[in-house]
Amino acid sequence: MDCRFFLLLTIFSGHAGIFNLKDSISILLFKSLFFFDLKVKELFLQKILHEMKKILSIPLSILAYLWFFIILCLFQPIQWVCFNIFGYQAHKMSVDYMNFFLSHTTTFLFSNFKIENRELIPADKPIIFVANHQGLFDIVGFAWYFRKYHPKYVSKIELGKGIPSISYNLQHGGSVLIDRKDPKQALPLLKKMGEYININSRSVVIFPEGTRTRTGKPKPFVSNGLKILCKYAPSAYVVPVTINNSWKIFRYGSFPLGIGNQIRITVHSPIKVSECDFNTLFEKTEQVIVADIIS
Questions:
Q1: Fold of 111-291
Q2: Gap between the Cα atoms of 89 and 201, Å rounded
Q3: Among residues 162, 249, 239, 179, which one has the least CA distance to residue 213?
Q4: Distance between CA 198 and CA 202 in Å, rounded?
Q5: 6: number of Cβ within 10 Å
Q6: CB atoms within 10 A of CB 128
Q7: Which of 19, 28, 102, 158 is the most exposed place for a label (fewest CB within 10 A)?
Q8: pLDDT by residue (tens digit) across 55-104?
Q9: Are 118 and 267 in contact (CB under 8 A)?
Q10: Which residues contact 293 (CB under 8 A, 6 or more apart)?
């Protein structure tokens, strides 16, 4: 017999002992069983909704991947023509438009971007954007929404080959490709990047975690790359940026993609490189980024 039915009978029959109506223990036990039952139902409904959402995301993910791949293939020859015939500015414009279309991949996933405090970024100054890294759409977001600052990237060397448009842009758009197995190779490249943004008042994006997180929880920041950039770009500003919810697009892995997310990119107050020692700058930058991450 169901234990809740047995409790009802014993409570209202007035039997003595542990199940007597006057006995508060029986009442608490009775209530707790129903409360537990409601919690189980709530968890069950959440599980059902989660699975329905995952099933719905399958056709949407196919459309999103198809759109993303078409845009990459379309802009590969466009980038080549712009770079080889018309030069840097034309190539930059082609990359901007490419990332405009790539950023709208999120539309297929019922997701969007929200950019906060962009007005804090100094104008016409060298900028070192320092951000936590959660996924592919971090880079797409920077490329489109921060395009006026001519963002370049410190990227792993593996991305420099075999990916339409992305590899071409990394090779010819002013970014640097780092071999993580050979730290010495990175030093002159980062030095060159620091000098480049310092002279041209452009920007570089660096993810000190070194790789993306798959859960949204930040990994420890590594200071080496940022330290070199600061050394060779003494007039630059370090701009901490916190990225939230980008990881949820890939919460199930590569397929299907997560739906119904808002990727939030929050800009924090800039720190002038020349106004504090590097250890203080690095510690402050990491703290302000991590403090705003939604776990």
A1: Glycerol-3-phosphate (1)-acyltransferase (3.40.1130)
A2: 15
A3: 249
A4: 7
A5: 11
A6: 26
A7: 28
A8: 889 999 999 999 999 999 999 999 999 999 999 999 999 999 999 999 99
A9: yes
A10: 132, 216, 217, 218, 242, 244
